[in-house]
Amino acid sequence: MSNKTGLIFFPAFDWSISPTHPEREERLLYTRDQIIEEGLLDLEEIIEYKAQMTTELDIKRVHFCIPTVNNVVTDAHLVAAGSAIALGEAWHNKEVSNSFALVRPPGHHAMHITYGNRGFCNINNEAILVEYLRKKYGYKKIAIIDTDVHHGDGTQDIFYHDPDVLFISLHQDGRTLYPGTGFMNELGGPNAFAKTINIPLPPGTGDQGIDYVLDNLILPILDDFKPEIIINSAGQDNHFTDPLANMNVTAYGYGRLNQKLNPDICVLEGGYAVETALPYVNMAIILALAGKDYSYIKEPGLKEQNLTESEKTLKYLKDFTVKMMSIWKNRDKIDLTEIFGSKDIYTKSKEIYYDTDNLLEEQEESIYKCTECAGLLTYVSYLKKSAKNLCISIPIYACNECLKKGKSLFENACKDNFYHQVFLQNKAEDMYLTKDDVNG
């Protein structure tokens, strides 16, 4: 393995929600200027790669884009996801020991089904990277650690029923911040219980609190799970100057987080203090990944209170850690019928609001409780007052029964007109079809 850190910058000049929206190109331009000024790209430990585009196939491995991929995705989204894949390839080929995709648009609020933009996200860059690496290289166990201040609800949704992907989200308590989810009881589905770990942090949590949960919860769980790849969904809006949140983390804290976590691939998510945080946070992360000293980085406005934690917050984190570690250690002893019932299929209904596009999705999700694989997953999905769609997802390492059941369900659904559209996501055979493909 080369002792190098790979970087890709993609500011997406031609994509924005609006000219003054917080998620805009300046998020990366200030960082780029700072890194060049400080000479980071001249370090022999750092290699810069060119941005690349992903394919429609890569997106279909992850998402049901309704009505089509072209209706949901722009070229900027293709490049953001493709750049994460490019660095994944560089890591797999041992060209680098780790990497950081400094790209936009972000993606961790994009769910398994996507109709458009929610939480500034259309498609999920990390999930697309995961499915690409699993399909091409056969990786089995992957961990995604989401350090964005907002709960990574899209990534959670995509892998909620997958026992081979450990998803840990470290975020400001959802009772105080968008998207209002990410609580302790969201632990994964019946085939993947405790493979989703949420750590809701009290507003005001800073470096000391992040350190505590890393040392006493996240790192022990990772050591137990033993992933082949660790991906950091690297949101930077926990910074004390971020305008959209209420946390107290410093650039140094972000550097130390990445030094301890030691991720293989980082993919940028949120972070909206474009002048007072992002250039410093990104520089600290890059230096930490490259094994260089980041202790001298001090952003404007740094004060002593950013470096200490309240006793109330520390007590909460200690109590929470004890409870969550108990769940993790005893996950195989818990009676799941008390949570998911005794039927062969577990079904739940939910509403998903697309805050940017002002859409409300009604969704019924069903997972087949399978003892051999992640299980066949189906959704009945529709927008308010619109026709219903059926989405069928066969897992990548599907058993024969789930593979046959998924294909049969798709074939039968295509024969009638009950659903407006029927989608088949056959990850096992890398085949993706709609009712229109079958019926012409």
Automatic annotation (TrEMBL):
User: GO annotations under biological process?
Assistant: epigenetic regulation of gene expression
Q: Which CDD domains has this protein been placed in?
A: HDAC_classII
Checking Gene3D superfamilies in the record gives:
Histone deacetylase domain (3.40.800.20)
Positions of the Histone deacetylase domain: 71-276
Molecular function via GO: histone deacetylase activity
Which PANTHER family does the protein's record reference? HISTONE DEACETYLASE HDAC1, HISTONE DEACETYLASE HDAC1-RELATED
Belongs to which family? Belongs to the histone deacetylase family.
Protein name per the record: Acetoin utilization deacetylase AcuC
